[in-house]
Specification:
Chains A, B, C, D: This is Nucleotide pyrophosphohydrolase. 4 copies of one chain form a homotetramer. Chain A is an all-alpha fold and 121 residues long. The first copy, chain A, folds into 2 domains: 80 residues, Orthogonal Bundle (Helix Hairpins); 32 residues. The first copy, chain A, is globular, with a radius of gyration of 18 Å. Chain A starts with 8 loop residues before the first helix and ends with a helix. Chains in contact: A-B, A-C, A-D, B-C, B-D, C-D. Chains A and B meet through helix 1, helix 2, helix 3 and helix 4 of A and helix 1, helix 2, helix 3 and helix 4 of B.
Amino acid sequence: MSDTPSASDLTALRDIVRQFAEERDWQQFHTPKNLAMALSVEVAELVEHFQWLNTGEDHELDDKQRTGIRHELADSLVYLIRLADRVNVDLYDAVIEKMQLNREKYPVEKVKGKSRKYTEY
Amino acid sequence: MSDTPSASDLTALRDIVRQFAEERDWQQFHTPKNLAMALSVEVAELVEHFQWLNTGEDHELDDKQRTGIRHELADSLVYLIRLADRVNVDLYDAVIEKMQLNREKYPVEKVKGKSRKYTEY
Amino acid sequence: MSDTPSASDLTALRDIVRQFAEERDWQQFHTPKNLAMALSVEVAELVEHFQWLNTGEDHELDDKQRTGIRHELADSLVYLIRLADRVNVDLYDAVIEKMQLNREKYPVEKVKGKSRKYTEY
Amino acid sequence: MSDTPSASDLTALRDIVRQFAEERDWQQFHTPKNLAMALSVEVAELVEHFQWLNTGEDHELDDKQRTGIRHELADSLVYLIRLADRVNVDLYDAVIEKMQLNREKYPVEKVKGKSRKYTEY
């Protein structure tokens, strides 16, 4: 991806997030360890929107919740992209690679429709 | 992004993850609430790699840890993309929008080099 | 509690956990920051048991899951007690104090039976 | 512990937390799954206090942070106790049992002073 930034929105977002941190001289706080913690905190703010709901499907949400979920999804991706940047992981390539491993780990014929298999793997 | 999938690797990954779930008939388990929980669990597996390290910089890691971090970053993004898909959020647009709010929330002149400001905002 | 350790199982557990760490010379790794991360990782292992279940009520669990939940609850409490010990917080006193604040924050007449109130507070 | 409630502050706190929920008719929201999510959210609020700090030792904290950490520790224990109550786990017995397993898993002679062993186990 890195050699075709024009075709990659993940690379574009990486550069936007990197510039945001550099402009504020926040690289000093952005160690991989600190970014992993910050990511977990943002994801928990996302989880908080769903904790007392039945399923979180659209009909259970009001506009304030929809906007909050949208913003927490964005903040979570910002920290995920920033952490990947700091540890030199190309997220697109990493997902393509991991999804192949997931296909081997969860063969359709063994796990289709089974959450038990899902959790026991 | 959704109208220009060829230019969007986030959209390409969304489609790969969506197909993976559909082939296994896992949509029934992929409620927004369950996906938010699963995302938080994957992110914790990422955090686990850093919990006893000083900063998590590359020189503190061995190849086994680097691979683990790469895979957990991928799994985290997979669930983040899947959750965004289920709640109809375009992640690229959401991040562009949220980063503008972040620029207003953390003006360079007020927060430059200050983690205290960072945490107190 | 601290003045009546014999009547306090939280104090007894604090001493057991403290000794476990000291025997292994792990105090060096047990900074408040690292312990907070470790606690979040253990809690995620607890969450993992419930992520694909409907409610997590007993009839949805098998013995392997019940044992796993019991062990993750224990590990979570171990790190919570260890962190409280490192930051000099008496957990019993802290909960008594916080529950009084919670009573004032969530008056029965305003929040009875309402999850919306619950989440909006 | 359950046969000597008067000597158990964990049992006393369990009863206080149980009454708090019953008075508000919140048992309907307190499924094990929802409580596990709520616990993870409270723990993340605790983690948030430490994410940009070096170690979180006392000299890095101000009184506002000390109070915040105290309150988040309390809220985390409240949900941990509530969840244990809902899944019928005696936390004192569970920790005593798990610490014995931990002693066998991390023998002093093998892990003393080693975080690497710690993380690799």
